[in-house]
Amino acid sequence: MRINAFTDVCLRVAMLLAAAPDGVLLTSRVIADGVDTPYSHVSKAIIRLRELQVVEVVRGRFGGVRISATGRETTVGWLMRRLDTRTDVADCETPHGDCPLSGGCGLRAALRRAREAFYYELDDTTISSLIPRRGSASVSLTLSTMTGNTP
After folding, report:
1. Which among 14, 61, 139, 143 is least surrounded, fewest beta carbons within 10 Å?
2. Per-residue pLDDT at 134
3. With contact defined as beta carbons under 8 Å apart, do 28 and 63 qualify?
C-alpha cells in the first residue's frame, strides 16, 4: 500500500511535533524545515491536523504549533483513514470511460478490504509511539537546530 504525499507530510508533521520538548511551540517555517517539505504543503497539513484536533495552533507573535494531548494518543490508522480522500485504491477508469469489467469485477472490493486491513494494523500504533525516546541522537540533533517558542 502506498500512502499519498499529503498523508506523508501530515504524519511527518505530527511526529516532529510529538518529538518537540513539552511546551515548545514550533513555527510553520521551522516545521517545514524540520520535515524538509515546502512551507505551503506544511501549512495545509497543519490546517488539516488542526481540524482533526491532532495539533493546537497558538496565534500571535509568540505563537506556533504543538501536538495536542489527543494528537499524542491518535493512532496512525485513525489518522490515515481521515487523510485518505481516495474512494478507491485502483483507478478503474480508462481515457474512454469506466472499465468494461467494473460491473462484475471484484478487484475494487478486494483492494478496499486490503486497505482497511492495512489501516487496521496501524490502529495500535500511536503518534507518540513512533517517536524515539528523548535523548536519541537523530531526533535530538534535528530539534536542537530548531528554535521554538515556549509559553
Report:
1. 61
2. 59
3. no
What is the residue extent of each domain of the chain?
Answer: 5-86+101-144
pTM of the model: 0.80
pLDDT, tens digit (0-9, with 9 covering 90-100), for 96-123: 766 766 667 788 788 889 999 999 999 9
Task: Decide if 75 contacts 126 (C-beta within 8 A).
Answer: yes
61-86 pLDDT, tens digit per residue, is 889 999 999 999 999 999 999 998 87
126 phi/psi in degrees, rounded to 5: -90, 160
Task: Provide CATH code, domain 5-86+101-144.
Answer: 1.10.10.10
Give me the phi and psi of 67, to 5 degrees please: -70, 140
* Sequence-separated (6 or more) residues with CB below 8 Å from residue 151: 23, 25, 58, 62
What is the C-alpha separation between 149 and 33, in angstroms, rounded?
16
User: Cell for 54?
Assistant: 491532532
Comparing CA positions, the residue from 127, 95, 102 lying closest to residue 20 is: 127
